[in-house]
Amino acid sequence: MYAIVKVLKMMLLFIFVGFLLPSFGLSVENNLTIDEDLEIERQLKLLNKPAIKTIVLRPNSYPDGLFDDDILSSTNVTSIEIGLKDGNTCPSGTVPIRRVSKDDLIRMRTSFKNMKMNPPVKNDETHVQPQWAVHIGRSEELGGLYGVSAFINLYGLPQVMQTQFSTSAAWLVNNLKEDQINIISVGWTVSPVTYGDNKTRLTAGWTIDNFQKTGCQDTSCPGFVQVSKKLPLGIAVTPLSTYGGKQYGLNILVFKDPYSKNWWFRLGKDGELIGYWPNELFTALPFNQIHFGGVVGYSENSKKPPMGSGHFPIEGTNKSCFISTMRYVNVENNFQELELGVLSPHSSLQKCYYVGPYFHQGDEFGNMFFFGGPENCP
Predict the structure, then answer these.
(1) Nearest to 1 by CA among 190, 233, 157
(2) pTM, 2 dp
(3) What PANTHER family does the record point to (predicted)?
């Protein structure tokens, strides 16, 4: 599944993904025109070609305050450590990259625009219903936004069907005009239409126009530069939380290196550097919003998928999905806690999916909130 390749520089940072354009929907029917099929073949050769050369392997600087304390010392919640099977890592000078097939690109073609951030309503072009339940913080309350971190509770959602997806994540957003919305997202997803199965997977994405023509998930197109030798984007994650039982999650951090200007993704309490998005990739910075929570998508007139744990926030600890210890990096490169009162809840279909209040849960969890909803909501 994973091909070992040399660490490479993504030479073509602004390849606009033409095969994603005309017809979208949550299905995998191969209704491609000749031109679309040729474009997918061209993109496949580009993504799976031999590596070029080794480039930046570590950031020059970390946010001040990042290492001041241990996040989530609770014995009831565990930050999982994931990687290649049996603890394997790639040889020196190489990294794991998920091999991209033609079927993968066709699935991505059908799912790409369903990741839109704004507005969270019916997409008339694709007949896809995206629904959101998030807390949002804005730069006018926080100042500059140069990074984000959080602990994101992990769940398995085996009931997610081919016509659905469910994601829990954190987003850095520059919410300008529709064709100028820059986004970085990190978290976990269950997306059969993207990956061909309903496993819970580590995921990250980017766009510079609200997923209209640019960007992608993971390393499915040039943009994100993988540096970790053991953790490829798109990898299935285990163990997973159980309803009423042991809880697991991901410690995620995205931050801007003030020297190289690159945007780094760091995972886990041990601080594994997964890779980075080159600053030149983006067109409208700095980011002016941070979002935390969940998004789901489903075909028009089909059943609705679960979000989070598949249970409403009111069920609380060990039953509802949560995000905690949310922080941000300010313009002075200082790591700051998101205090109570600076996040506001937004739900697009509150009877089915919503976020609970942002509150303090003591030293074990810090500030947190629950979110989500069940499948098949009427």
Answers:
(1) 233
(2) 0.80
(3) PROTEIN, PUTATIVE (DUF239)-RELATED, PROTEIN, PUTATIVE (DUF239)-RELATED-RELATED
